[in-house]
């Protein structure tokens, strides 16, 4: 924190009006003079920080009341001034909004519709946390015809829409390792513990629960199969086969392939080669199952690591809960209806992850979602931490906000976004949304100075303003 040095006690004793304006210990009159005087602070106050004179318990001439109002006003003005300098450098297609609770501190083009990139996941998180039961888990099951220690015929692996099914060797390959993976090895061990030693047929994948549409229609060719998809209710390792550099078009086949490998590794002989499009048939029984982490942790995976597949699968679960159709379209319908019920109209939703360039959000909408009280635990649990976790692990590492600021990043060609909050020592956090659309804005040399300046400005609230005004720390 950058502050001016404290003056000596003898010098402070010659400035009682200013010092008492902060500590409020010798009475109210000097503070009222300051309040009503310099720069007409009371007339320029925005928001609800000033308390109505009528019907209050604290006396009107309370030094505590006047001092706090002055602190609030000076701090907001100083932060707004700093943010003006940041906003002066953003491109024409950009917005910035900062608020504390219901009090807007700074607003530049906050109702401008822009491409959000992965800030779209903030919307998906809000919808999933609201429209799916908090107790939700996603269960993967194994079926077969048991004959002693053998499975007579095929072993059926049935997907429950768990996007976090992972093998331990794949986890080592991930740029951002899955936070709370569902272990495929654990599921295989449960099959072994059930007494199975031989599968006379094949491992067959089944992903009937959700849509078999492998991609979102509006995704460009540059992201399909690379940044997201192919999608399905049965996915292991994001659809990757560890021993194969080419990702199969059918994620349930990839899952069956990985499960076959894991079963063989623990000593279960599997005769046939993996396949997909399986169905639960008469005479089979459930041999083993495994649940995902709770819903709030699945949402956190999506937010912290910006997991595109998790976002799209969650959107399909929202659709399934909405009308029994686990499709992207039904999920978008339910999410749009939710946003409209909250009073939002200026948005366009095309996917859950933000990979589509046809999405449109505003800074106002993002800040409003981040400040909704019923979603506070979702975002405090799920957003990446500056310089520490997920997509912010290598960002703000030398900033005053390192280890403190929580945010969701977003990146596409000519798109860079950052929305989240900075906790305060007391009271409500500062919430913010910064969306940048413009040529080459996603280049580190173009957006990082803006992010750093934003982080620095937020970090200096409220101490710098009080030091500048009164020559003391709060």
| CATH architectural name of the largest domain | 3-Layer(aba) Sandwich
Distance between the termini: 13 Å
Put simply, the count of helices is 16
Q: Can you give the helix content as a percent range?
A: 25-40%
Beta-strand content estimate: 5-15%
Low-confidence stretches: 1-56
Total domain modules: 3
Describe this structure in words.
With 474 residues, the chain is an alpha/beta fold. It folds into three domains: 9-75, no CATH class; 89-131 and 297-442, DD-peptidase/beta-lactamase superfamily (Beta-lactamase, 3-Layer(aba) Sandwich), CATH 3.40.710; 139-293, D-Ala-D-Ala carboxypeptidase C, peptidase S13 (D-tyrosyl-trna(Tyr) Deacylase, Chain: A), CATH 3.50.80.20. It is 36% helix and 15% strand. The strands form four sheets. It has a six-stranded antiparallel β-sheet with strand order 2-1-16-15-14-13, sandwiched between helices. A four-stranded mixed β-sheet has the order 10-6-3-12. A four-stranded mixed β-sheet has the order 4-5-9-11, with helices on one face. The longest helix is centred in the first third of the chain and has 25 residues, at 63-87. The protein is elongated.
Indicate the topology:
Elements: H1 9-12, H2 16-23, H3 29-36, H4 41-44, H5 63-87, E1 94-100, E2 103-108, H6 120-131, E3 139-144, E4 146-147, E5 150-151, E6 155-158, E7 165-166, H7 168-171, E8 182-183, H8 184-193, E9 198-199, E10 203-206, H9 251-265, E11 269-270, E12 285-291, H10 295-304, H11 308-323, H12 328-341, H13 363-370, H14 376-382, E13 384-385, E14 406-412, E15 415-422, E16 430-437, H15 444-459, H16 463-470
Parallel strand pairs: 5-9, 6-10, 7-8, 9-11
Antiparallel strand pairs: 1-2, 1-16, 3-6, 3-12, 4-5, 13-14, 14-15, 15-16
